């Protein structure tokens, strides 16, 4: 019953936030800070509805350089709400072109100044990447990318795609990794408190002076750091869960 109520409220939240986001986009189209504001419109009510407790330690994200490439692990559509609480100022996202057909959200995504890439057309995708590189270099705007390229419910990170790292090297801007704990499999949406989520950002990784020859090692370095961080957060949450279970057992005796 609680799960169904939550899904109904989430659907309502999606519609209301979409309408407000489209209105914001119409009032100031393609403003690079629209993404942050729209993310909050979705995320803040959603966290109240879902009763997910998010603990964020993201100092390196809040104090990021004016322009950088932010990379994050991608688990599910709930990432919109979980990461929406920490999207920094003047940050846009890269998404697939098909998103523009999603009612309200697609129009909001476009008006918010985000980048839509046609992955089936190499020439258009390359042109979009060049535009994004110019944005990083000249407009004090950061780009948020999910380098796995798709949602991942597995036990480890998928191999990273090259696009985010090509952009960072071409623009000479640092990369800021952001990690979220493995939360999707552990959410209990039929309980009042549905779970805990940890988000941590890692120190910026500079790319100044790097060339495309350095890209494979850069990708390996970023992926290794993120794997270590996610594993540490998962162990931390597991330990908290075990202590809570022991405490409940002690009270029931």
Can you describe what's shown?
With 253 residues, the protein is an alpha/beta fold. The chain has one domain: Glycerol-3-phosphate (1)-acyltransferase. It has 8 helices and 7 strands, in the order ααβαβαβαβαβαββα. The protein has a 7-stranded mixed β-sheet, sandwiched between helices. Helix 1 runs parallel beside helix 5. It starts with a helix and ends with a helix. The model has no long low-confidence stretch (mean pLDDT 88).
CATH architecture: 3-Layer(aba) Sandwich
Distance between the termini: 29 Å
Q: Which geometry do the CA atoms define?
A: globular
CATH domain class name: Alpha Beta
In CATH, the topology is named Glycerol-3-phosphate (1)-acyltransferase
Give helix % range.
Answer: 40-55%
Largest beta sheet, briefly? Answer: 7 strands, mixed
Mean of pLDDT? 88
Low-confidence residue ranges: none
Task: Determine the number of helices (DSSP H or I, runs of at least 4 residues).
Answer: 8
Which strand-content bin applies to the residues? 5-15%
The counted number of beta strands is 7
Cα-atom Rg, whole angstroms?
A: 19 Å
User: Looking across the biggest beta sheet, what order are the strands in?
Assistant: 1-7-6-2-5-3-4
Count of spatially separate domains:
1
SS-based structural class?
A: alpha/beta
* Element-by-element helix/strand order: HHEHEHEHEHEHEEH
Enzyme class: transferase
EC number: 2.3.1.51
GO cellular component, one term: plasma membrane
Pfam families: Acyltransferase
Brief summary:
The protein contains 8 helices and 7 strands. By secondary structure, it is of the alpha/beta class. It catalyses: a 1-acyl-sn-glycero-3-phosphate + an acyl-CoA = a 1,2-diacyl-sn-glycero-3-phosphate + CoA.
